[in-house]
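name: query_chain
kind: protein
chains: 1
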Amino acid sequence: MYGGVMITQLAEAAGEHELGWAAVLFGVVMGLLGLAVLILVIAAIISTLINPDTTAGGKLLWVILILWFPIVGAVAWFVVGRKRHLNRLLGIDKGKARHGGPPSVGNHSDNPSSQPDLGPGTGTA
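structure:
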């Protein structure tokens, strides 16, 4: 009887030991995932703050978004924010894209106009 109890205790101890390794492995994997998310968030915040094309208010909005939704915000910054597409749409881009429209509208050249001069008084008032 003593041998049967001992075998049962050894079997239970072996089962707990396997569960312990699974828990340690799960903890290591979750720790690595957490570290990866932390690095992604820190990289996104630094990239946001050093971006010269985004206004100060735009940087604040991006940092809030990244901190509020860490994974989605950081990925959104790297996919759309850095490339200025969403920044242009929101009007938080310092670049020329904010001032849309072609640089020259109409005839602004030094070449004489091909239209005849109608003289004074012929224009509309």
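note: Residues 2-95 form one domain.
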